Amino acid sequence: MAPVALTGHLASKIIPKNGYMSVVYIKSAQYSSDGKPNLAAYKRGTGGRSSFNGIVATVFGCTGFVGRYVCNKLGKTGTQMILPYRGDFYDVARLKVCGDLGQVLFTPYHLQDDESIARAVRYSNVVINLVGRDYETKNFKFHDVHVDGARRLARISREMGVDRFIHLSYLNADENPTPLVMKKPSMFKISKYLGECAVREEFPTATIIRASDIYGSEDRFLRSFASVWRIHSQIMSLYKNGEATIKQPVYVSDIAQAILNAARDPDTRCQTYQGVGPKRYLLRDLVIWFYQLMRKDRDWGFRLIDMKYDPIMPLKVMLINMISPAYPFGNLTWESLEREATTDVLVKGMPTLEDLGVTLTNMEDQVPWELKPYRAYQYYIDKIGEFPRPPPPKVQPAI
């Protein structure tokens, strides 16, 4: 009997012996430095949290608002996650329970350090970019994060042989936005637009999700209106009294589900999706409804005015940014007010989250639960039906 010859990437060395025997040394293919293996061949389990579905995903921005939801949904479906973090490890350690033992791994990184980014994506076949800023700091401007950072992540992911790159952007990103509240164009909108272009240049098959205002637990949409920093006395000011702005907010869990579905569907390559909720509302109607849910209109005599007739708002924004420039109280900055005043405009023919198989959540079903911690007189346990539930805001027709 002649010696058996093995070929392929599994056979490392064959040492013939006397007679009919051969000694074959098999090298591990899972994390081989000779190339990326077919991770789908390693699938095991029934698809739950204790399974492995063949996807190894690196989630940049995992400690942020959207990142926590994305990690939970990835871990629930058996995805192995590599979670890069900066700063204190204990900020990201809570995500360890998103997956089973050995399925959630951590690595330090810096957005301007190519080597640390390459180490984070080396063994992944999916990279998800959720890194973003709502306000600028002395270390990171909008352009540094949304453009240079996104370009660097996309470029290194392509160079390391990553199969899929998913990028979270902004619905109203624009190269030449018209100023509404501010005196100059919003750098947030411009940088988000340039970031999409940079990702497309470096990773042409990337999937981009343009999200509207995202609400959920610990968000910066509902809680900015509920913050004591936003209202003064009995007055709250909005751009043109909230009557010129139409919003289509989306629930954070729907965005996370869309990212998960995009990662599992290869047909989403090169696509751009619009992340909006199922209904459109006037901003004025939304804000009044928020305060009715918190029963603050009944207790305080709440009313809305036009922002241009409010002399206190500019002083408040200036004071907040002087006291706490690294973290504005109540997310009260001119950039946030500019985004708040912007109407959500959808591009005709561009797919939405429903095309990703997401069942959208209605605000009427979720927002009362989100605002429950902000209700006035929480210590009072009311009887069922004692206080009538306020009617939901009027739905605006689709454009």
TrEMBL record:
One GO cellular component, as annotated: mitochondrion
Molecular-function annotations in GO: protein-containing complex binding
Xref: CDD domains: NDUFA9_like_SDR_a (cd05271)
Lineage top rank: taxon: Eukaryota
Domain NAD-dependent epimerase/dehydratase: 58-268
Pfam family, one: Epimerase
SUPFAM superfamilies: NAD(P)-binding Rossmann-fold domains
Subunit details: Complex I is composed of 45 different subunits. This a component of the hydrophobic protein fraction. Interacts with BLOC1S1. Interacts with SLC2A4. Interacts with CLOCK. Interacts with RAB5IF.
Record family assignment: Belongs to the complex I NDUFA9 subunit family.
Protein name: NADH dehydrogenase [ubiquinone] 1 alpha subcomplex subunit 9, mitochondrial
Native source species: Euphydryas editha (Edith's checkerspot)
Source organism phylogeny: Eukaryota, Metazoa, Ecdysozoa, Arthropoda, Hexapoda
